[in-house]
Amino acid sequence: MEITPEKQREMLRLMQTIRRFEERASDDYVAGDIHGVVHCYIGEEAVAVGVCSALEREDRIISTHRGHGHCVAKGADLNRMMAELYGRETGYCKGKGGSMHIADFNIGMLGANGIVCGGLSIITGAGLAAQMEGKGGVAVCFFGDGASSAGPFHEAMNIAANWKLPVLYVVENNLWAMDTSAAEAVSVADIATRAAGYGIPGVIVDGNDVLEVHRVASEAVARARAGEGPTLIECKTYRHRRHTERPTQSDARPPEEIAAWMKKDPIDRLVAHLQGQQGQLNEAEWGAMNDEIMNEVERAVEFAKASAFPKPEAALDDVFAD
Amino acid sequence: MEITPEKQREMLRLMQTIRRFEERASDDYVAGDIHGVVHCYIGEEAVAVGVCSALEREDRIISTHRGHGHCVAKGADLNRMMAELYGRETGYCKGKGGSMHIADFNIGMLGANGIVCGGLSIITGAGLAAQMEGKGGVAVCFFGDGASSAGPFHEAMNIAANWKLPVLYVVENNLWAMDTSAAEAVSVADIATRAAGYGIPGVIVDGNDVLEVHRVASEAVARARAGEGPTLIECKTYRHRRHTERPTQSDARPPEEIAAWMKKDPIDRLVAHLQGQQGQLNEAEWGAMNDEIMNEVERAVEFAKASAFPKPEAALDDVFAD
Amino acid sequence: MRQITYAQAGLEAFTEEMRRDDTVFHLSTDGPKPLVDEFGTSRVRSTPIAEGALTGMAIGAAGCGFRPIIDWRMVTFCFVAMDQIVNQASKIHYMFGGQTKFPILYRASVGGGTRLAAQHSQSPYSMFMNLAGLKMILPSTPYDVKGLLKSAIRDDNPVISFESTRLQTFEGEVPDEEYTIPLGQADIKREGKDVTIVALAWLVHEALAAAETLAAEGIDVEVVDPRTLVPMDAETIRASVRKTGRLIVADEAGPTAGASAEIATLVTEDPATFACLKAAPKRVCALQVPIPYSPVLEDHVFPDRDKIAAGVRAVMAN
Amino acid sequence: MRQITYAQAGLEAFTEEMRRDDTVFHLSTDGPKPLVDEFGTSRVRSTPIAEGALTGMAIGAAGCGFRPIIDWRMVTFCFVAMDQIVNQASKIHYMFGGQTKFPILYRASVGGGTRLAAQHSQSPYSMFMNLAGLKMILPSTPYDVKGLLKSAIRDDNPVISFESTRLQTFEGEVPDEEYTIPLGQADIKREGKDVTIVALAWLVHEALAAAETLAAEGIDVEVVDPRTLVPMDAETIRASVRKTGRLIVADEAGPTAGASAEIATLVTEDPATFACLKAAPKRVCALQVPIPYSPVLEDHVFPDRDKIAAGVRAVMAN
Ligand SMILES: Cc1ncc(C[n+]2csc(CCOP(=O)(O)OP(=O)(O)O)c2C)c(N)n1
Ligand SMILES: Cc1ncc(C[n+]2csc(CCOP(=O)(O)OP(=O)(O)O)c2C)c(N)n1
Ligand SMILES: [Mg+2]
Ligand SMILES: [Mg+2]
User: Fold this and answer.
1) B68 lines ligand 2 (CB under 6 A)
2) pLDDT attached to residue A85
3) Domain count, chain D
4) In this structure, are D119 and D257 located in the same domain?
């Protein structure tokens, strides 16, 4: 299936939006305007964008502690995202969630999640909901290599396989879980190998190649919509930055490894692809796209700063729905 | 590796001991002398005996809610087992545990466990202990097909594989977990398939053939002692009785399936083997062995009945070790 | 009025609510036969033994517009699902700023007396009370369990129904007509003026039995059944104590940081109620030990009508 | 005397005990570098993210004669291990009739104030208190954390050490010489005669600050730090209240069925202490909500020196 140049440029735009949004979030975090913790997705944008561009708005996804990329890729509003990071009442969670808990149920984004492997059972329930709704909807779970060693992975895969639930389990294998390497923590070289133990397809894909990710995800989506059940997709990728943006954050990764992966940057790669073979993006267009994105991010920050903090007593709201 | 006729007769004796012990436990449970719940292992004796006869006394095992067979196979004292079922102070747990919690740390029996999949992490810790002790000890986990779909299975297998722990994970696939079939609950035909996802050997064995079980277990024990890590062994077997001995206990299993498996009785099979090809057990010997076992069980019941109930205030002891 | 068992009343609640609302579905190991028969295996699913997965799946399905019921069966089995309960279900509505509802019913049997030993005899509701974001019911009669379960299924929040093992076969009046009982309303099961016993679940009946004995001794006991643990109807309890001046809390759980401690504190920390107290409040609870197997041991551990009566006499003597 | 941080004091306890006893080993995600450097990756293992497995492995290894330390890191992450904690670790010594010891140290950071929102800001110790079979410490100073951790590692039971996030960088005096602090002994952090504040962890320091303010107003505050939650030193707390006649319990956790409820009830249910009470006891705790992210919201939720002082004034006015 051809991916039109328009669609490729749209993917590029989303990837670059993730990057610029997070660069800014990191700056503002270090400056003290954003609190708690910020985990950047930078370097892994091709995964979220490749997968989400294979979905419809009605399809649902769930994310991790490293969630901004999935939000943007699924179509979240930068203003409300940034306002949430800034802890304002206009944020997605009215300031109650922060970076680790942005959700937008209207666009099928079922939330970032601060618990490693916390999303797997939840999204499997969304997959069950989609199956019961009978409208061909699909549910997608993003999670890390670290999460893949936790029990909920196993339970979810087995149940989804049993019931042929329309779910994509997308493991973002960025080779590290904090300071522990996948080589130490995962007993096999490829997490996708584990799919065979559930009797479902396991696919390995270059997670820095957005077009390949899109192709693999589209196939899995088609299978899911056709009632053929879940797929485990392992995207080999890498984070460019440390685990969090905390100035004191440690980093156990070898500098050479980091350097080697920086050269495989997914955005550079798509730009080269569009500029090269296809000649579908000239330097000026790319510059303009980037400027536009920078403006959008800037406007999001302005929106956040112009928004009020919640009233202190609002802490008592939303414990229960009524 | 040859299994001597003596050893085979010893295996037979243990298997028949399990069976007679449980038949009696069931009777006394229905009669009201034993309380709570009793899960019988009858029909699956070849698994416990085949595996435990490949172990040394110093090796450690952990069991399930269906634990009498593992206790007997590891060498537990019938008197103290029966006294525990009778709730007496001479029981293994001074009457605090009952059928689901018999343990004897002196013989490396780390306990029955009422939580499905509850033993997997504990025995993995015993495997780590054996590795750290450096004396070539081995740890064995018995668990059911039902347990294999629970998260702790996955976590334990991955860690044991990573660290090459000397553990045998022995899944007793008796095709049912209460009233749910493995066909419904497990997404693959053979649970042993899952071993590949951890990079460890997965072996399927006829769990009603004690000699085969012994052979497979011995190989896995040798691997473990040699520092080559864990093995997943799937024993295909069947329980002759309902999930528990409760008179109201339901049973969803097709009668034909039950009938077919009764014909594959592991004890009949070993008797036939010893009597037939080898001529190593004549009818009189087998009768005498059975009588001896019946006496032993009877003495255990007498021991239990002659033992005192714990004092009520003993309920306050043993909350903490001091 | 017809008499049915506590278990039957619960089943009726489920059946009626599943008929009433197509979005209600049921997950548990070994799906209950009557529900499977009526609603089929698509709405009443038997699952692998993976309570953590079920608990989380309920959250996902609820966020997509369904009203899942998850029967954990014994409360013991929900501890494998605790991450989904504590870190997800109780917080998700709040931390997402209230943007979506998560209507879920989790169900668990609690209590002891069944000779099932420590792992299978637990009453840990107070563990969930300290969390914010979960509602909890603990009904003591067939009438209450049916009416509260129906409200719980209709509630737009995660609700846990703790149902006493000892009460499963207990019979009581339940009308044929439809009714619901709102969450958060205590029920005065017996009026009296000398001492208030706040009793939970099975102990409501033990307290009522103790009250009969004590009446013969001239002590007039009021028995209050909170029925709902969160939200707790503190005002009904406090009003009772302001009237009687004396408080006993009877609970099948151990006392330490239990529902009994919460109830006692709700009473004593209220200055107006404190001012009416004539004696120190008293907890009549299980001994603070894991539950042992042997009948002689287990019976020693649990509170009962005699221990409640003794507690009342002690409080009256102060 | 030298001053070191709370975090440093904890590390010293681990280092000294690992030097002292070869059977002590350490499991956690990302093993702490100073321990790895000194003891190697065989005794200080970095693990996959599978806290449930680690928690259970500790039980198995302890039953085989080792003394494992499992650092869950944030208490949040132990909820994936709750089955191993509730159904196994807390009950195993008892249900096996005391035949083997299970010396284990579980460690977790607790508390909020870090803008990490609901999942990463929790103080759920009371959930564990209702269980029987686990000991628990909650130290408030570098001196206490070191001395209690050393006792906890030597204890023959599973012990959970809850360590406040807000105190990690807090400095205090710690002697060079070896010492231990026995589990189960409360510490009077300040003597006073008008009102007893039982304060937990970080709030000990807030209570001491409030005491200064109140002293200027002529109110003489006694601050009691239980230090150990199980076993709880009820007698020291009761003796203090018998002296002052007034009780405030200050806790970073929500009040409902919290440690605060237990402490208040231990005081009020004791007839001799009840008789000395001049006013209703009062809990000064977090609001009963999940912890929100935004600083304005989070600061509103937690108790602090001002709220404690206000609570004391209210209690003095009664
Ligand atoms: C159950 C649990 N344990 C530990 C943590 C702390 N933690 C946060 S992120 C992280 C590493 C996650 O690694 P991975 O799943 O590979 O995702 P990545 O950060 O690489 O995107 C850890 C250990 C947690 N959030 N949840
Ligand atoms: C976590 C948990 N969930 C549910 C149960 C209730 N239960 C007891 S035994 C059992 C079936 C176990 O099946 P399997 O593992 O195949 O062992 P088998 O009984 O066949 O030997 C169930 C569901 C339990 N004990 N623990
Ligand atoms: Mg990773
Ligand atoms: Mg089975």
Assistant:
1) no
2) 98
3) 2
4) no
Assess whether pLDDT exceeds 90 at residue B50. Answer: yes
Same domain, D198 and D146: no
Q: State if residue D29 touches ligand 1 by the CB under 6 angstroms criterion.
A: yes
Give backbone dihedrals phi and psi of A249, rounded to 5 degrees, phi first: -65, 130
pLDDT average, residue stretch C229-242: 98
Q: What is the CATH number of the domain that holds D227?
A: 3.40.50.920
CATH number at residue C40: 3.40.50.970
Cβ burial of B17 (10 Å; 0-12, 13-18, 19+) is buried
Q: Does C91 touch chain D (CB under 8 A)?
A: yes
pLDDT in tens, A25-60: 999 999 999 999 999 999 999 999 999 999 999 999
Residues D123-167: pLDDT tens digits?
999 999 999 999 999 999 999 999 999 999 999 999 999 999 999
What interface predicted TM-score (ipTM) does this complex get?
A: 0.98
Helix ranges (DSSP H) in A54-142: 68-74, 78-85, 119-133
Which pLDDT band holds residue C252 (cuts at 50, 70, 90)? very high
- Same domain for D96 and D7? yes
Ligand 2 mean position, distance from CA B186 (Å): 14
| Residues with pLDDT less than 70, chain D | none
C180 assigned to some structural domain: no
Rounded to the nearest whole angstrom, what is the distance from the C-alpha of residue C28 to the centroid of ligand 2?
12
Q: Which DSSP string do the residues of D222-241 spell out, in sequence order?
A: EEEE--EEES--HHHHHHHH
CB contact under 8 A, B95 and C293: yes
Rounded Cα distance, A292 and A254, in Å = 35
- Domain co-membership, C91 together with C159: yes
The mean pLDDT value for A88-107 works out to 98
Q: Of the candidates B95, B101, B159, which has its C-beta nearest D47's C-beta?
A: B159
Q: What is the dihedral of CA C261, C263, C269, C270, to 10 degrees?
A: -170
d(CA D262, CA B149): 39
Same domain as C212, residue C129: no
Q: Give the percent of chain A with pLDDT over 70.
A: 99
Strands annotated E in chain D = 3-5, 24-28, 44-46, 67-74, 104-110, 135-137, 158-164, 171-173, 187-190, 195-199, 221-225, 228-230, 247-251, 282-285
Whether residues D167 and D274 share a domain: the answer is no
Instruction: Give the neighbor-by-neighbor strand order of the sheet with D67-74.
Output: D44-46, D24-28, D67-74, D104-110, D158-164, D135-137, D228-230
- pLDDT the model gives residue D247: 98
| Domain range enclosing D291 | 187-316
Whether pLDDT at B1 is above 70: no
What is the arithmetic mean of pLDDT over C157-164? Answer: 98
H or E stretch including C111?
none
Domains and CATH numbers, chain B: 36-77+97-281 (3.40.50.970)
- State how far the Cα of C297 lies from the Cα of B96, in Å rounded to an integer: 8
Does the structure show a pLDDT above 90 at B2? Answer: no
pLDDT score at D265: 98
Inspect the interface and report whether the beta carbons of C49 and B184 lie closer than 8 Å.
Answer: no
Share of residues in chain B with pLDDT > 70 (%) = 99
Which of these three, D146, D173, D200, is where a domain ends? D173
* D79 inside domain: yes
Strands B167-173 and B139-144 turn out to be parallel
pLDDT in tens, C133-145: 999 999 999 999 9
Residues C251 and C122 in one domain: no
* Together in a domain, D168 and D207: no
Q: Residue with the nearest Cα to atom 7 of ligand 1?
A: A116
Contacts (Cβ under 8 Å, ≥6 apart) of A202: A190, A192, A193, A194, A195, A196, A231, A232, A233, A234
Residue C179 within any structural domain of the chain: no
User: Is residue D251 in a domain?
Assistant: yes
End-to-end CA distance of chain C: 42
Residue where a domain stops, chosen among C173, C208, C230 = C173
